[in-house]
Specification:
heterodimer; A: mainly alpha; elongated; B: mainly alpha; Ammonium transporter fold
Chain lengths: 60, 568
């Protein structure tokens, strides 16, 4: 799951960067940036963090 | 009649201008109605008459310099010191020329900028002391030596890594830096071509401050200033990972952060890299704008701190078995608040110094930048103290300190672009945001951050980056353009929504790339040397097992405190 979290974080970053080249519309670029940020945050704060919390020291 | 007079006056002015431009010979040719010679037609208009007079000796006596007798009497009023006599001449036989005078003016401007940049860099360096005592004060006494030593050594480790390669990666392709005389050897950026655009990714001049001709006075000034910024980012991490970070892992991690993580993002934002070119390449405002480093310095540090805190996990005793967090108060609130004041003082180097100039290129805005910095720090502490007072019934000292720092972190990126109203709002939001973020990270994410570094620097660094895209008021003018786009930086509230998109792409890069890069790097270190100390060492305190000496050898640490912690 850690790997999935990392991949989601990277994909979320690449979404708005790649979208820059496919649209000139400011609204579309803004939307893609928000979508990318959401993917990244889910990857880090939910998927990756949960993977680390699974074996947290206070659960042992 | 007026028109006639104006026309006659205009003719006279024109005649004088022609005399100046073409010289007497050319005028003679014009009177004979002959076509101008090719030489006269192609010569630079202003150069012909000016060139001879540049080397001609000036009449120094006309400037009435004080005599040697007058100077021998002293100058209590300061009116006789610094006159034409002090202008350096290039040829003593010839005496002072216009050329000498003009060169002196240019050198004076660069000298002012050098001194300004160096002195503000010295202020930023002193912030290391502030960070050291804030973090140590917020940790327990049994870890004081270890925490201080991390903050102490991160300066040297980061500096060394930055000298070897970090500076070259960051700034090696960003020249010219006009306020520092150009620093022209830093003119080689490695670029990739995607979709018909060039994407600068890292610099390739300046390794060891010698390669690529970088043994240069301007480069040295730039190095010092950028180096202390980089070290600020590194020292953020030591706070979040305090009280359980293995010292050898800290040393290796800091070296890599100073050599790679920080310089890469700093290149993209400040060294002419692709983020700074979002405006020129894609029409997004002025590209990613981060005046003094809310993103480059603080968010990079804060996000690396988050990555590391996830990897090494919380301190023993921080969470009960049901996941409820326990308060683990620091041992010296006096140190903490003193450190906050030192940091606030150093921030006057951080933000105003980021003009890299006090003369020319709109650098007189340093006054505005300094006031913005003060105000945001002030409202940041207001926001935090009010939040804590209302929510918990008491004004919390450590969170008040963190509120001050949060305001300062948030104003760092926009300080050069916003008005005082904007800075007050940015600081106030930051003060509340840091409290909410600390609660969220501690209670929801269950990530242990003993000093609140992730919230102060990560969360508010990101808020600072976004706030540029909202509050930049379009009044700044640093030499007429920013990131290669003419005009002033404007945010959403001042008519340019595209600037906000550029800032958000910067935020996406910070979270998506910088966090991930730091995470992977520290996971590798974790697998090789291990990031966390043994549980027994952690319970005993890291001073003896890791450093070999107690921070406070005359203190008697209560055995029952340790036992109670072990029981948890």
């Amino acid at each position: 799951m850690k790997l999935v979290g990392v991949l989601l974080a990277i994909v979320g970053w690449l979404v708005p960067v790649v979208a820059l080249n496919f649209t000139q519309s400011l609204g579309a670029r803004f939307a893609m940036t928000i979508v990318g940020l959401a993917i990244t945050l889910i990857g880090i704060l939910v998927v990756l963090n949960n993977a680390h919390q699974k074996h947290a020291i206070w659960k042992l | 009649m007026m028109g006639l007079v104006t026309r006659k006056t205009g003719c006279s002015l024109l005649a004088v201008l022609v005399l100046l431009i073409c010289g007497l010979g050319a005028v003679g040719q014009a009177q004979n109605a002959e076509p101008a010679s090719p030489t006269a037609a192609t010569a630079p208009p202003a150069a012909a008459p000016v060139t001879p007079s540049m080397d001609a000796p000036l009449d120094v006596k006309a400037a009435q310099p004080p005599s040697a007798d007058e100077l021998a009497k002293g100058d209590p009023g300061g009116t006789k010191t610094g006159t034409v006599s002090d202008v350096v001449v290039s040829d003593s036989k010839k005496g002072l020329t216009l050329s000498d005078t003009v060169n002196q003016v240019g050198q004076n401007r660069i000298a002012i900028n050098f001194v300004w940049t160096l002195v503000t860099g010295f202020l930023v360096m002193f912030m290391q002391a502030g960070f050291a005592i804030v973090e140590t004060g917020l940790c327990r006494a049994k870890n004081s030596n270890h925490t201080m030593m991390m903050n102490f050594m991160v300066y040297s480790l980061g500096l060394f890594a930055f000298w070897v390669c970090g500076f070259a990666i960051q700034m090696g392709g960003g020249a010219p830096y006009s306020t520092l005389g150009g620093a022209n050897p830093l003119n080689s950026e490695h670029v990739f071509n995607f979709f018909g655009k060039t994407w600068g990714v890292w610099g390739t001049h300046g390794f060891f401050l010698t390669q690529g001709g970088s043994y240069d006075v301007g480069v040295m000034v730039l190095f010092l200033f950028q180096m202390v910024f980089m070290d600020t980012a590194l020292t953020i991490v030591t706070g979040a990972a305090a009280e359980r970070w293995k010292y050898i892992a800290f040393a290796i991690s800091s070296l890599f952060m100073g050599a790679l993580t920080y310089p890469l993002f700093a290149n993209w934002a400040w060294g002419g890299g692709w983020l700074s070119q979002l405006g020129a390449n894609f029409g997004l405002g002025h590209g990613y704008c981060d005046f003094a480093g809310s993103g480059v310095v603080h968010a990079v540090g804060g996000l690396t701190a988050l990555a590391l805190s996830m990897i090494i996990g919380p301190r023993i005793g921080k969470y009960n078995r049901n996941g409820k967090p326990n308060a683990m108060p620091g041992h010296d609130i006096v140190l903490v608040l003193t450190g906050c004041f030192i940091l606030a003082f150093g921030w006057f180097g951080f933000n105003p110094g980021s003009t890299l100039a006090a003369s020319g290129n709109g650098a007189l805005r340093i006054g505005s930048i300094a006031v913005n910095t003060m105000l945001a720090g002030c409202t940041g502490s207001f926001g935090a103290i009010l939040y804590m007072w209302i929510r918990y019934g008491k004004p919390d000292a450590s969170m008040s300190g963190n509120g001050l720092l949060a305001g300062l972190v948030a104003i760092t990126a926009p300080s050069g672009f916003v008005s005082t109203i904007g800075s007050v709002i940015i600081g106030l939001v930051a003060g509340v945001l840091v409290c909410v973020s600390v609660e969220f990270i501690e209670r929801v994410l269950k990530v242990d951050d003993p000093v609140g570094a992730i919230s102060v620097h990560g969360t508010n660094g990101i808020w600072g980056v976004i706030s540029v895209g909202l509050f930049a008021d379009g009044t700044s003018n640093y030499g007429g353009s920013w990131n290669g786009v003419n005009g002033s930086v404007r945010g959403l509230f001042y008519g340019d929504p595209s600037q906000l998109v550029a800032q958000l792409i910067g935020v996406g890069t910070l979270i998506g790339f910088v966090f991930t890069f730091s995470y992977v790097l520290n996971m590798i270190i974790h697998f090789i040397v291990g990031q966390r100390v043994d549980a027994a060492e952690e319970l005993e305190g890291l001073d003896l097992p890791e450093m070999g000496a107690l921070g406070y050898p005359e203190f008697v640490l209560k055995p029952e405190t340790v036992s109670a912690m072990a029981a948890d």
